[in-house]
Amino acid sequence: MTTVSTPLRAGNDLLSRYAECMLWLARYMERIENLARLIDVTETFVRTGSTANGWQSIIEINADSERFASYSTTINAESVINFYVSARDNPNSIVSLAHAARENARAVRPLISTEMWVQLNMFTNFIRSLSPEHARQNQISALCARIKRECQTQAGITDGTLYRDQAWHFHMIGRSLERADQATRLIDIKYHTLLRPGAMVGSPVDISQWTAVLRAAAGYHAFRRLLPRDLTPGTVVGFLLKNDSFPRSVSTALRQLALSLSALRTDYGLRQAAPIIERVHGVRAILDGQTAQQILIRGLHEFMDWVQVELQGVQTDIATAFWPHEAAAAPLPTGQSQSQS
Amino acid sequence: MTTSPSSRPVISGALADYDAGDYFCEMMHRGEPPPPEIASLVQRLDHFDLAQLRQRASAAEAELFNLGITFTVYTERESIDRILPFDLIPRIITAAEWAHVEAGVRQRVAALNRFLWDIYHDGAILRDGVVPTALVHGNPNYRPVMRGLDVPGGTYVHICGTDIIRDEHGAFLVLEDNARTPSGVSYVLENRQMMLRVMPDLADGLDLRPVGEYGLQLQAALAEVAPDWASDPQVVLLSPGIFNSAYFEHVFLAREMGVPLVEGRDLVVQNDRVFMRTIGGLRPVHTIYRRLDDAFLDPECFNPDSLLGVPGIVRAYRAGNVTLANAVGTGVADDKAIYAYLPRIIRYYLNEEPILQNVPTHICGEAEGLQYTLDNLADLVVKPVGESGGYGMIIGPHATRDEIESFRKTLLANPANYISQPVVKLSVAPTLCDNGLEKRHVDLRPFAVTGRSTWVLPGGLSRVALRKGSLVVNSSQGGGSKDTWVLAS
């Protein structure tokens, strides 16, 4: 007789809606953290006077130009930060994202740990308390640090307390998808940030911007340790896209994404995950098949766009496979759709 | 504690200015001499200073927010989380009092289930003229679709919340039965948790009846009444969703029972069987604890516009393939008109005298009751029988002469729509208020869980009217709650 392992039945009963909400809870939390990182790096560009278009770039990489135009006529630190932090009518603001995260968490409250729920409540209460005061230039960095720390606390509590069944895998899928997507946006911000007149690619100003991107990704020290004498656009892009040891790189996020999908397929017998795994492997293969230098030459921005479209495709495939028809039509409380920014 | 059981405790601290007036006080009016457990509790409470109590109260409030033990009010732009205010001072029930209340609740639940079976089958009680047929068949909550359906165990009211008050003599009186989807039990469990965290020194060493097994009992009862052929029944809790103000409770109960919390869109009916949509496909469901009113349950059968329900679920129910808790059509039994007949219903089915009395109720549909009501309008509460929520009622002592005369006409136009009751002097309990510990009115809602037999959660929800002089304990009108301590001996 072989030993009978824990029956699959209990594990296989995850409601489709729960899976969807777990994924979005993770995505929104990850998105908030990365938005704080984007604001932080943009603030650095502006403060150091290394950019010609400053706050414009963050609006562009989030494809929010149209929405922002209806929100404010001037682009400056205050208007952009308010737009991305406390504007309730902007679905991509941190306050809206926190609300969406909490509403998804509320829906899966039967599954998540009380400690996760308590932290999320304290976090959303903090976010709701933010006023335009916090958008003052001299407080932005501290604000971003606080938001990042809150998100990381949430992530830590999740890692330490969330029961590791399929719900957890969907959480990991959501986090990985969003992290990969946001990593491409952080890289892309360099594309959208115009160097001030006279500064050349590879010039000290250019390098200082790449350094700021690395710092925003929390990768500066690891990068220095790895490549102490070689900070160039190519090496930074390579690090953020292709390094398998850096937790916030695109390749690490894709690897985690494939792992979680594989766990669903093999541990829980969910065969519909198979073609999605193949698709993720396909993206990884294309990323592995070229050097950072080649990507830069062929067009960094175009490549980032392509990765984002592929990730969107993976999201759609997951929705079709695990929460088809009615369940997928579930509207968000605020009336906004749960979509990539 | 060193208090001698034979003497009244000396009160000189937090309770020094406490005055319960003419009301029965759940803590202080406990006879001469008071039982030793209560005397020692009073002494402990008296030793607190108010600043300390306030500090603990605000700690408790912050914790409720952080735990998200809130009901949510949605506006167009945002959601507002409110907590049910929690008062630190427990409401005490002695072992003897509880034995009486528990027996009375069991008796009522048994009678309600027998009554529902009868009116959806032979209708003997109607034929025998004990309850007017029109009152039952004309009731909007009477569901003809239930006729002839044999529900497992004969249980219609699986979860019952009985609203009980005490008069100035301390007698327990039933105010109403809640036999549809009574809520509030989550606060009972959460209040106890909170109480033991915030006031450990007050509870220390006292032998209190625990409340934590509610989820287990509920799960067991619901599994018990699943269709017979389901060997490993899947129980789910059906919620209207996160917009419902009781959503916190739905989550709480699903977790305590360890069952999925589903919404209508998670369920689907195929071949008269109910399934839930999972990531692995459709999975069968056998018992549904539904926190959704009859009207929204099945657009095929009731409100066709309901997006919250599950098309075909009543067909599956009638086919015996799924059990709904509570059953469809229980609303007719907790109606105010039927309430007035409940003492007679108890005698009819159980051949027993009611253990818990009703608030004396005059049925205006009966000549005698109408005459009495008309003669004493200024002293009575007169309520329409149809709906809950306190609409269309008049409180005689609080009404002007004109209001009373105008109401007299309304009453005479349709006497059968009304019942009348005396204004009961609700009991009070010490409550932490702005000016210290003051008397506030309280009620009690015990929860009875019935599968094949009935289990009653010790205690229940004690609601407190936080506004001075107010008799209204509803959370929407300034009500809060207290932990209910049932002493084990």
Automatic annotation (TrEMBL), chain B:
Gene3D superfamilies: 3.30.1490.270, 3.40.50.11290. It comes from Ameyamaea chiangmaiensis. It holds the Pfam family CP_ATPgrasp_2. This is Circularly permuted type 2 ATP-grasp protein. InterPro entries: ATP-dep_Glu-Cys_Ligase-2, CP_ATPgrasp_2, UCP005522. Residues 90-465 form the Circularly permuted ATP-grasp type domain.
